[in-house]
Write a structure and sequence with these properties.
alpha+beta, Outer membrane efflux proteins (OEP), two-stranded antiparallel ribbon, 11 helices, 6 strands, efflux transmembrane transporter activity
Length: 447
């Protein structure tokens, strides 16, 4: 355990020391009580951080994904495999008892005796029990339990990843709907400008070049509208796939939810909350326990053995021959290159697991810091975009009043309206990016 603790401290030394909080100590739950998924673990899997967005369609999509997504089903099946591996590891330390029955023909000849027929029917039983004096089997069982814990956190990480992907796709859908509405308004305004310029060109008071330039601008809006509709349809297909083929409802909404202030976690809580880190930490424990088991395999092993066999001339009759044996056995390894090689292999696996744990911590910290930086920047950009929209809205109102009073041309008014609509489109994109940054931060914080 000292070697394990030192390795975890080294993995996080760049963050100011040993801040890793074991899920064992934080939960206060004895892992020996595990049968399937422990109650505290089920509670963690049922965390619904996405409900804070207040979107019923998003909640329905995630519920469908948790029940129908095949990728999540694969990860859940791996947890079942880990549960079975724990039972298998524990079974090795239990006594085994076998019974057998068979038929044989033969004769036996001994010195000073004539040949006689052997009893053709035979039966027997064997009992074998390895007493785990060295703790090798207990270490292997503990390794399987840590692997089970890692499989559970993998499932939690997969659900967290799936929920974040669905939330991002759902909010992308709303953003595309908002952009479609804005582009439709922009296309309508652009068409009015083209019509007005055509009338002026016909009257000889506008240049043909201006008409063609505005027509190209109008065609650009139409092209963008077609492309955004394509992206909207692809997003619906993506949502349908993520939810396991379920019907995607509410595909016309265009309003995006507001996000509150992001949560803040100390280093120790972050390391004990992110499922990716917890899974990597559990794999480190599992690897060290396997290495420990391999080292203990060099010590003598003690077994209790018992066997009994009998033979008779009839399957249902009384047996006429009996043999029974009982006694302990001690296996003392002197030189076993296979066991020595296994220790080297397990030690290398421990180093790999420790390196992966450190990489997981660095990756999660990068995700948290990046998401926070993006959130602060997006909020500032959004505030600037909203200020721009308010200014353009005032300019648009003034231009419309001047146009109604005959003080300005329709071209100037329509150009002001076009820039106002483009600023609204930028605002919708920033709001969606802000939501994505919030989702990424929630995922990095473990939900």
């Amino acid at each position: 355990m000292l070697k394990f603790s030192i390795s975890l401290c080294v993995a996080t030394v760049i963050f100011g020391g040993c801040a890793v909080t074991s899920s064992n100590s934080s939960s206060g739950i004895d892992r020996k009580a595990w049968k399937q998924t422990p109650p505290w673990a089920q509670a963690r899997l049922q965390q619904s951080w996405w409900r804070k967005y207040g979107d019923a369609s998003l909640n329905k999509d995630i519920a469908h994904a948790f029940s129908s997504n095949p990728d999540l089903a694969v990860v859940a099946a791996r947890l079942e495999q880990a549960n079975a591996a724990v039972k298998s590891a524990r079974a090795v330390s239990l006594p085994s008892f076998n019974l057998g029955i068979g038929y044989r023909e033969g004769r036996k000849k001994e010195v000073d005796f004539g040949p006689y027929d052997l009893a053709p029917w035979e039966g027997g039983g064997q009992l074998s029990w390895e007493i785990d004096l060295s703790g090798r089997l207990r270490a292997a069982t503990q390794s399987a339990r840590h692997a089970q814990e890692a499989a559970f956190w993998d499932l939690h990480a997969a659900r967290l990843q799936m929920a974040s992907r669905i939330a991002a796709a759902r909010f992308n859908l709303y953003r595309f709907n908002a952009e479609i509405s804005i582009l439709q308004d922009s296309t309508t305004a652009s068409q009015k400008t083209v019509t007005t310029l055509n009338q002026r060109a016909t009257a000889g008071i506008a240049a043909t070049t201006d008409v063609r330039r505005q027509q190209a601008e109008h065609d650009r809006f139409k092209r963008q509208l077609i492309d955004v509709r394509r992206l909207r349809d692809l997003t619906i297909v993506q949502l349908r796939t993520l939810t396991g083929g379920n019907y995607v409802s509410n595909t016309s909404q265009s309003s995006l939810p507001n996000v509150g202030n992001p949560p803040s976690l100390p280093m120790s809580q972050l390391l004990a909350a992110n499922p990716t880190i917890l899974a990597a930490e559990a794999r480190v424990r599992s690897a060290f326990q396997l290495e420990k088991s391999a080292k203990l395999d060099l010590l003598p092993s003690f077994k209790l053995n018992a066997s009994a066999s009998g033979a008779g001339h009839s399957l249902t009759g009384r047996y006429t021959q009996w043999i029974h044996q009982f006694g302990p056995s001690l296996d003392i390894p002197i030189y076993d290159p296979v066991r020595l090689a296994k220790i080297s292999s397990r030690r290398a696996e421990s180093k790999v697991a420790a390196a992966k744990y450190r990489a997981a911590v660095l990756t999660v910290l990068e995700e948290v810091d990046s998401a926070r930086i993006n959130l602060v920047s997006r909020r500032s950009q959004l505030a600037a975009a909203q200020s721009e929209i308010r200014a353009l809205a005032t300019a648009r109102s003034d231009a419309q009043a001047q146009f109604n009073a005959g003080l300005t041309s329709q071209i100037e008014f329509l150009d002001t309206e076009r820039r106002w609509l483009e600023a609204k489109r930028v605002e919708a994109a920033l709001r969606q990016s802000l939501l994505n940054d919030h989702i990424q931060l929630m995922k990095a914080l473990g939900g």
